[in-house]
Design goal:
- The structure is a single chain.
- This protein is α/β, with parallel strands linked by helices.
- 36% of the residues lie in helices and 15% in strands.
- Helix 1 links the parallel strand 1 and strand 2.
């Protein structure tokens, strides 16, 4: 096989460098003979969904067991989880935290005064099992993982590069016979934001680790590029997508006009904070008399939503003052304390105004226990994937652990089967063709279309869904997708344009899945 000069060939292509992508790269790079390319659209590789995970990561506490964790995952997931996946996570996860995060990356989790690891408990957990680094666990994990990757000589990191589409011979090959072959992935077209050109990257194996899609909703705790790029690319490539109706709303995002909806960690309630309405009354016992403020996230989020509607209020409040002294609040939640203070709220003296916001996508690209998708040589790990761990609703702090486990296992399986090689002649894969592009990106159109997507999803495909709302959403989004598709095909590429195309596709994926599932379960709630 001949390799065109315009193409780049690597052994393993990893799209995304959050916890799943970084752990995958760490595992694969232990073989010094492999060439690994990690790609991120951010200029700073630390800018990932992982960075914003405040609460912590599941490990195994002193009074904990794999069986207890399996029970908690299954209960939180409304018994829609994969039994094999949750057992795998519960048994192997804590060992992998030690191996990849502690030993290889050097993450230093908080410790108790006696020097032992400090475990805490979050909502719907039956044991103290959460490891944390203050209230910025994800940031510390991400910093250490990226530093570890930079020290690996066989890992190349491309920043400010946005994946446009996966390359599949059945869709892209010049050889007409390739259309009859089973679906397979041989790399991706990747847009260089600085060089303003699209690179053709061929790979023996590709791992999607592109994170979530919260930015397609009006209110979200997710960073700016969390628009589901990997999900849309996998969908266009023909991969199976499952559980797309299960979009988890975090019950408590900071709410103040002009301020971002940053996350108020579930660990705040885990440490004893109470939810209050505008009259200062605790209300969760009316919605969940057993778990109250520590009920599963979907229950708490809907309870807040209903409390706001029934009382015609714009937000509710968290009271941490009665749970901790001032000094302990600042010590345990320094990031939350300082960020709230930056926006005029002193949480040691005042109530924290909060609203629900989209936080986590429980569905995604279907993968097996080794991260394999239904497209040959395409793997997925982290939030873009659906392993079955979360079922219909994610248990708090399970996502980082899932990223570690499936990131490592996807890399292990990819490396183990690497000798198979490409499924097509590289000469059959054409370089990117932009000959039809004649317009520059119009910021006004982009902003208006994204705003339309976000508001449509928030009001019609949000916390409480109904048939008539979903029907309106699908009709509106179909029309908008046609307009965006025409715009995309005739406009010079940009990161924003790529994201807009993916955003409308993902909005439709979720709206259709919600329409097709009439059963309320977990974080999918049908009013009718």
């Amino acid at each position: 096989m001949t390799m065109p000069e315009s193409h780049t060939l690597v052994d393993l292509l990893i799209l995304g460098c959050g916890v799943a992508g970084s752990v995958a790269a760490l595992e694969a790079s232990s073989n010094p003979n492999l060439g690994i390319l990690v790609v991120t659209p951010a200029t700073d590789p630390i800018e990932t969904n992982t960075r914003y995970a405040q609460g912590g990561i599941i490990a195994r506490g002193p009074q904990d067991s794999a069986d207890l964790l399996v029970q908690d995952l299954d209960r939180a997931g409304a018994q829609a989880n994969s039994p094999q996946a949750i057992r795998l996570l519960a048994e192997q996860g804590p060992l992998m935290v030690q191996k990849y995060l502690v030993e290889q990356a050097g993450v230093e989790f908080d410790r108790a005064p006696d020097g032992r690891l400090a475990f805490t408990r979050e909502a719907a957990h039956s044991a103290d099992r959460i490891l944390h680094v203050g209230d910025a666990t994800g940031l510390e994990i991400e910093k250490k993982l990226i530093a570890a990757l930079r020290a690996r000589p066989n890992v190349t990191l491309w920043t400010a590069h946005t994946a446009v589409d996966l390359i599949t011979p059945s869709h892209h090959s010049r050889n007409p016979r390739d259309v009859y072959a089973p679906l397979s992935c041989v790399g991706a077209y990747i847009y260089d934001q600085v060089g303003n050109r699209v690179k053709t990257v061929l790979a023996h194996k590709t791992i999607l680790a592109t994170g979530g899609l919260g930015q397609i909703f009006l209110h979200t705790t997710n960073p700016a590029r969390a628009r589901g790029d990997g999900l849309a690319m996998a969908y266009r490539a023909g991969a199976r997508i499952v559980n797309a109706e299960y979009v988890q709303f975090h019950p408590t995002a900071f709410f103040k006009r002009g301020a971002p909806r940053f996350l108020i960690s579930e660990a705040v309630r885990g440490e004893g904070a109470r939810l209050l309405n505008e009259a200062g009354e605790p209300f969760m016992e009316r919605y969940d008399p057993v778990w109250k403020d520590l009920a599963p996230r979907d229950v708490v989020a809907r309870s807040i939503h209903l409390e706001m509607i029934n009382r015609a209020i714009s937000n509710v409040y968290l009271d941490l003052r009665s749970a901790m002294p001032d000094w302990r609040i600042k010590e345990r939640f320094p990031t939350i304390y300082q960020t709230c203070l930056d926006y005029g709220v002193d949480i040691t003296r005042e109530l924290i105004p909060v609203v629900p916001a989209v936080h986590y996508f429980c569905g995604g690209v279907w993968v097996d226990e080794w991260g394999r998708s239904t497209v040959h040589n395409l793997y997925a790990a982290g939030e873009v994937s659906c392993t079955g761990v979360h079922g219909a609703n994610r248990l708090g702090s399970a996502s980082l652990l899932e990223g570690v486990v499936w990131g490592a296992r996807a890399a292990q399986e990819a490396v183990r089967t690497l000798s198979a090689g490409l499924t097509t002649d590289p000469a059959n894969i054409p370089p990117w063709d932009d000959s039809m592009s004649m317009y520059d990106t119009d910021p006004a159109l982009f902003q208006q279309d994204m705003e339309t997507i976000r508001r449509t999803m928030w009001y019609y495909v949000g916390l409480i869904r109904a048939t008539y709302r979903l029907r309106r959403a699908i009709d509106d989004l179909r029309h908008l997708q046609r307009e965006i598709d025409f715009f995309y095909r005739h406009t010079h590429l940009s990161d924003e344009l790529i994201g807009l195309r993916n955003a409308v596709q993902n909005a439709l994926i979720i709206a259709r899945a919600a329409w097709e599932n009439p059963v309320s379960r977990g974080c999918h709630y049908r009013q009718d």
